[in-house]
Amino acid sequence: xxxxxxxxxxxxxHTNLAIRYLKSYSKDYPIQLKEYTIKDPLINIVSDLYSxxxxxxxxxxxxxxxxxxxxVIEMCRKISPETKIIIGGPEVSYDVPYWLKRxxxxxxxxxVGEGEETFNQLLDHFHGKLTLxxxxxxxxxxxxxxxxxxxxxxINLKELPSPFRFEEDLPHLSKRITYIETSRGCPFQxxxxxxxxxxxxxxxxxxxxxxxxRFLMDNGAKIIKFVDRTFNISRSYALEMFDFLIKEHLxxxxxxxxITADIMRPExxxxxxxxxxxxxxxxxxxxxxxxxxxxxxxxxxxxxxxxKRTVTMVRDGGKIDQHLDxxxxxxxxxxxxxxxxxxxVFAMKxxxxxxxxxxxxxxxxxxxxxANHDYVYMDHAPYEILKxxxxxxxxxxxxxxxxxxxxxxxxDHRMDQxxxxxxxxxxxxxxxxxxxxxxxxxxxxxxxxGHQLEDLFIRLHTFLKTAKPDAVPYAExxxxxxxxxxxxxxxxxxWWVKNENDEWQKELYGLxxxxxxxxxxEFEKLNLSQKDLHKHTVLEKGFNDRYILAxxxxxxxxxxxxxxxxxxxxxxx
Length: 573
Fold this sequence. Notes:
Number of strands: 20
Structural class: alpha/beta
Shape: elongated
Number of helices: 20
Helix content: 25-40%
Radius of gyration: 28 Å
Distance between the termini: 82 Å
């Protein structure tokens, strides 16, 4: 029998760990893996799968790919009705009767929950080794009625074979994200999360996982992302793994983790600050809300002061980038409460702040009890909420405006100095800046058109002239510096209107060549020739009595010199 396992990833650089575990566990059967993305034309996916002529076709289903996957399945069924089609994954493991009835004649079986043993037993059944009644963890329709075979017990993770050593994967390791798990399950009960449904945490063999990581690095893996729901739930385990990665990592490798910040011990953070190379680790931290009532309602135990201590210590250490998550739409979190949550978290200045919207995932406590808070949400994935008893749809739209400009102007770090000034000194709060700018952005119709880097500066400048004209002169100064510092080489054009009279520049360049100390001692040390001064620098007027000088060396990053007019007498102005 020809067996194909497939999935649609969100992006090309992603890889699917689940289908690799299924293949490694069912090593007695030849299984081919076929991965696509949700952006690929569906007919191309179907054509490629059809060319394999599979007898058995399995799909790994998630919230981000389920609707596209269903369309692929529908076409596959029409052109190859004899193929056995199996679906599995977190999106279809809950509310099983719904999926069986929706996909009535499109699929044959659902693998419910942990799939390695289930899929292997199904293959044994197809090959005449087991009866269907002996297969655990499956659901199907029989005479129009839902039949579910429960899983009998959890797999011993220490006995799972490696999913990382397939020959066909090795050439792609350097170009894609490698996902790895060293544990399954979560100790917490957050009611918006699927991980809360599985009780307890089980670990893979530590030494075996270290060998896997060595193998991946030796074969070129550059980004390795741990999908453990709470990597640091065991302090001793986390410290041991951090120590291993620090000592044995290869240059250029980055490791990403989901951590629970308020249980991170200060001595562990201090160890990382003292010993981790810069950029080796990246932390993802789910804050979600700083509202105590909201956290209690969703059974989320969180000590915000300890979380803030962790984030601040990591930030001040300067070694590890942090990605913090917020969720709009949680119970009893109204617009003003969410504004406070946003400002509480933004005050910590994380490298990335992800503003997401509550998704009512099948099987979660919030979805089951949605009526308690008058939730209205999308019928199909991603099941995002539209409103509830505290947050109107108008409020949701306003917060989406915040999300749009937050991504462009904070997370992309195109103008850090400018945004710091605006959020700390010009607008009442950071949220007010992103809200006012986001709403202005939407009203201008900019959300419906593309943009280049220069456009982002021009659009912020346009907004400030309307909203905060008194702040424009100094903001322009900072925006020029941010723009010049974000160029890898001397820019050919600027976002601002250039002064046609450049006589002052010629005169100041002459002074800079003859008296480089006027731009500071660090610039003087460059000892630039007159040719290099003109070839590798940009000179602009800044705020009040200041000049901006950006130097772009042939090798390395740009350098910025911001100096006073004081003591510089120009004949031209």
